[in-house]
Beta-lactamase family protein
Amino acid sequence: MPGETEYHYSNFGFCVLGRVIEKLSGQNYDSYVKSQILTPAGISNMEIGGDTEADRKVNEVKYYGQGGEDPYNMKVSRMDAHGAWIATPMDLVRFLVRVDGFTTKPDILQPATLNLMYAPSTTNAGYAKGWAVNKVPNYWHNGSLPGEQALMVRTNDGFCWSILVNTRAGNIGGDMDVLMWTVKNAIGYWPSIDLF
């Protein structure tokens, strides 16, 4: 934002962005995202989650809280643009490979837009426009709500991955990150099969 002097992560800002998308596109938020982002990325199964266990979508997991958390004690549908999407790890990777800047798959954004999106904030060198970033450069985003923990990563050496679990406890997000880097670094040969 122009005139920034401090960094504060704001889910509410992403919620406002969803309303801006609706106003400018004339469509509801999830329809616009599906037609303009997900479908071009080859994703057909992502949707906004429901508010209760009874509202679960087909093939959606049951969420488990920890330490007294009730994973069904929030209005998820109101969180559409800032945390209500349900997806498989494969769908998140399908998205990642379409915004990774590599030549393996065509990106859905122009190179200048990707550069802008991944440029660190002037007030926080570790955060860009919706992405955690570092100088390597690797880009990633995590998500954490009662009953879920998610992580998706794009590495500088050509890898994209995602991991999701249906609970959160302790440092599970950090543990998931360590696990995925350990798996990636332990594999010496990667098949050339295109999964997408």
About this structure: The chain has a mean pLDDT of 93.
